[in-house]
Structure formats: C-alpha cells, structure tokens
Amino acid sequence: MPTIITVSGEAELKHSPERATAQLSVGFEGPVRERVLASSTELHGVVSEQLAALLAADGGPVTAWSTEQLRVWGQRPWSQNGEQLPVVYHSAASVTATFTDFAALSDWLGAASLLEGVTVHGIDWALHEETRRDLTREAQQLAVGAARAKAENFAQSLGLGSLTPLALSDPGLLGDENGPMPMMAVADSVSLRSRGMAGGAQFSPEEIVVTAAVHARFSAS
C-alpha cells in the first residue's frame, strides 16, 4: 500500500532595486493664513517644476511623479496652562516621484530636503514589473523543487523508492476541508519585501527579496 507524503517547499531570491519612489510633503504653518498659503504655493511650484524637468519623457531619470492639491486648515492650540491660543494655520501637499537613476535621486533629494517647508518621509524600493514576474516564476519553480527534494528524503528515510506527485498548491490549499486551515493559508504564496531606507541624501538600499512557498503531496512505494 503506498504511503502518502505531504510536504512544503520554500525558495528565496534576491535582486537589487531597479526603481525608487520618494515620498515627501511641502507646507508651512503660521498665524497668517494668506502668508502660509502663499509660501506653500511658491514651494509647491518649485518642487513641481524640478520634477517636471526630470521627467523621463524628456530623457530624464524620473518615470512618474504626482502631487496633491495644497490643503490649508487652522487649529487653535492649547497652552501648558490650559488656555486656548490664537489660531495657527497649516498647509500641506504630498509629493511622490519615481526614479530609475539612484544617483539622480540622491542629488535631487539632497537639494530638496534643504528647502524650508520640505519634509522627506521615505523611499519605497521596487523592481520593474518584468523582473518581478521573472523572479516570481523562478522562485516558484525552486519551491516546487525543494518540496520534491524533501519528499524524496522522507521516502528514502522510510525505505521507499518510487515517488509519484499527487497534488501541488499554494500554502494551505491541501488542508483537510473538515479541519482547520493551516496558518500559512493566510499568507501570499509569493511575496516581495524591501529593506533599507535613505540616510540623508546618501543611501544603499538592501536587495529586494522575492519568496515563494508551495504545498505538495506525493505517493511513495
């Protein structure tokens, strides 16, 4: 009678980031609404003009950029003595820009971060879509190979030789329908994660990690 072996297989691949999306905001605060709005509008225009000049359509390093409309609002802060103070006006607009040239990103971000009213929130590192698909496919194939190698090792440990694949799935999909779903079922079978943030204008992003996981079932005799 054949023995059923159910195993999991995992694989991990690394690749250097190919694009980076900088996230920042522009804005000021002060007691005079008109002055706050005027300063923010001017800064918003400066940053927008810089990014428009760097757009890849003109042979530059930026592939896309966007900015939201300036928002202006007022708040009355409280003093340490519990007294409500005069209104303070705030303005803000978020800006995102995607670069493929990291040296150009470093230069632009370094200059932009020195402008009064600019706050840099971080950088998201990513791969080109084609690269991500290729790595995902390769990681899945490696995960299947790892599952088979594990099953073969189990079979040899039991003194069995012939191994026949019965089923292959994303994690959790081979579970007993009448029993609880394995914890791995809530996770994606393929995931990407990127580590590394900008340190000032100089940064060295860590490699993006692409992982894949499968569950497999074999018959051994």
Give the CATH superfamily of the largest domain. Answer: Protein of unknown function (DUF541), domain 2
**Order of helical and strand elements:** EEEHEEEHEHEEE
Q: Do you know the CATH architecture of the largest domain?
A: 2-Layer Sandwich
**Mean pLDDT value:** 86
Strand content: 35-45%
Q: Per CATH, what is the topology of the largest domain?
A: Alpha-Beta Plaits
Q: Sketch the major β-sheet.
A: 6 strands, antiparallel
How many individual helices?
3
Helix content: 25-40%
Q: Can you walk through the features of this model?
A:
With 221 residues, this protein is α+β, with helices and mostly antiparallel strands. The chain folds into 2 domains: 3-16 and 129-220, Protein of unknown function (DUF541), domain 1 (Translation Initiation Factor IF3, 2-Layer Sandwich), CATH 3.30.110.170; 19-126, Protein of unknown function (DUF541), domain 2 (Alpha-Beta Plaits). Helix content is 28%, strand content 36%. The chain has 3 helices and 10 strands; from the N terminus they run E-E-E-H-E-E-E-H-E-H-E-E-E. Strands 2, 3, 4, 5, 6 and 7 form a 6-stranded antiparallel beta sheet that branches. Strands 1, 8, 9 and 10 form a 4-stranded antiparallel beta sheet that branches.
